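Let us begin with a simple case.
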Amino acid sequence: MSTIQVAVFLTITALIAFATYMHCRGKRGSGSGDEKDYFLANGGLAWYFVAGSITLTNLSTDQLVSMNGNQMLLVAWWEFAAVFGLFILAFVFLPVYYKNNCTTTTELLQKKYGDKHIRALISLLFLAGNLFIFLPAILYGGSKFFLSMLGYDGAGAEFILFDVSPQTFEAMGLNVKIANLLVFSIALAVIGAAYAIFGGLRAVAVSDTYSGVLILSLALVVVFLALKAIDFDLSGIPAERLTLIGDNNSDIPWHTLLTGMIFIQTFYWSTNQTITQRAMASPTVKEAQKGVMAAAGIRLLIVPLIVVVPGIVSYKMFGDVPQDGAYGQIVAEVLPLWLSGAFAAALFAAVLTTFNSILNASAALYVCDMHEAYVGKTKSVGRLGAIVSIVMSLLALALVPFFASQESLINTVQQLYGLLSMPILSAFVVGLAFRNVKAAASMVGVVTGVAFYAFWSMYWEPAHYIHGMAVTLILSVVTSLIVNRLIFGKSAEFVIGKGDAPEPAPNPAS
């Protein structure tokens, strides 16, 4: 990296941090004992901060690097389908969260079922997904981009911190590529955790928005310069890389859009604490809905371009680039020297904001749903949240080498998260759509879904894993209702379309 790149990178990174500090200074949030303030910014997020934070929490290296790494148009369906999920969040789930005054999405389950144990179970599954899937995937994706852009990711790469030959490391039994990945991952984890620990959700959301303007703008510049580099001529690229209609052997067969894809988007955007936490932090539900709709517009009009076009162009310029390296190569090729430093700062910010958003959401889940329910009220939410963030960061770093061994980051993340996403969604579906269902019955359905999807995706594999998600959701819901009737002797009552069903009476035993 040249002196110019480093100077631009450090200047922009410092400016984002300074702007965030200036906006948040004097406001509560980092050391408060009030979880509403620390985790929901005391209901003070305007719609544009909601839109910015939702957009950049999702838009990170697992999109820019891994989706471009597929080098095909087909993966844009993840973004097009996300618009549907955001509409469901805005008009189905948000009114319910605000009416029930929820701090976490899982708090809604406790209020619907009248039982704290189902809230804790779902929180535990969310935490497992954040720890074992999302946090290490983000660290890996961010590190992969920087190494690829700087030329430390190819054959014969040297250790980034020292002038040591690869042969020397091999002689010591060390993998140079993994060592380089860990160097960057540690830096990202330390700085990202600092935002989450010292600023609470307010600092996270504000930094998200400032960074979002920068990353979206520069990512569009990359799209334009990449197309210009090939004279806007896509000829010579195989037709299967330019189609939106996936066949049975593709990553996204067309028929999966009608089954599991719908449920994946509903789960991710409407029940996932990391995303919905931003929308739950506005002063009113209407302000939150404005932010979500703005995020949907960005997702429809801008994000598909920036996550697929550079990858397709890189196929024409470099051929099939292995292991998600295409985006770093195309950025290094088309951006001028000074602008590449700015883009590195923007992507660095994108990784940080996604990482710290997940840490803040994870701290909220543990503090509100588990610690306060089973240990007791904490005197300092900020201190306990900091401990959770540090522990999860350290464990996530240990998992980075696993993701480095995967062929496609985006497909690995989606497939693994199916173990948790559909069983979790089933608890929300049963709780919102039915009355008179025991929490224990729904918990049995959740556990059954986890076991079934693991069998489907890892051993049986009768059809695409996205179809498996749809089957898992249906099985989990049906299992919950059957167990509720046969084991607990209760008949579930379907309440959709019957007005606002009364809340169940709290269970003293819970």
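The second case is a distinct protein. As before, the sequence precedes its structure tokens.
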Amino acid sequence: MPEKDNLIIGRNPVREALRSGTPIDTVYISQGSGGLGEIIALAKEQGAVVKTADDRKLSQLAEGGAHQGVVAFGAVASYASLEDLLEVSRKKGTKPFLILCDEIEDPHNLGAIIRTAETAGADGVIIPKRRSAMLTPTVYKTSAGAASWLPVARVPNLGAAIDRLKEENIWIYGTDMDGSLYTETNFDGGVALVIGSEGNGMSRLIREKCDFLVKLPMMGRITSLNASVAAGIFMYEVVRQRSMRG
């Protein structure tokens, strides 16, 4: 369920928000409603996700407000582009270091990952447009403000983004229990670290696109870690290895 803090309801408010460049994550359109072509076009032009819903769902989202067939949820900040993230390491003169979130849907996990990525000196975080948490107030709060400093790119297709990273000679490291121990993995060169979803890990397609698979040792009865905790361990192994090489 999107967060109510960023709720925009009604045709004119949503239209004007889109026209003004207000960051919009998702626009919900009533099934069968006419006269919404401009809003749909503006939403797609801005890169917002457009979903159809019945009137009952829209009324629930709008909490009883007069939605007029359209409800939108805005982001608390603008998203960067993938090229923006690639430019960060070029300007710093360092090897790329990016975090890819493969369907991380819990906003607390996404916020914690952004927080750790910023402290670890990563260049940015990449999330997919669908099946992912967005830059909501909860994400911002959980990131302890790091979301204000670390660019987050939202891409239509994570697999295509990986292909673009490979064109820049960036190695893709997927986190998977079938991988090699993270301490025995060489994180030299450009690094893109893929963190899988809370329940299912990486999707099959993303897993197949990885150059390396890495894992954490599991010595207890529980065979998995919280996604953000695992992400932090992997990120700081990259930091450790880079600091040793100077």
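The radius of gyration is 19 Å. The CA atoms of residues 174 and 208 lie 9 Å apart.
Keep these points in mind for the review questions at the end of the chapter.
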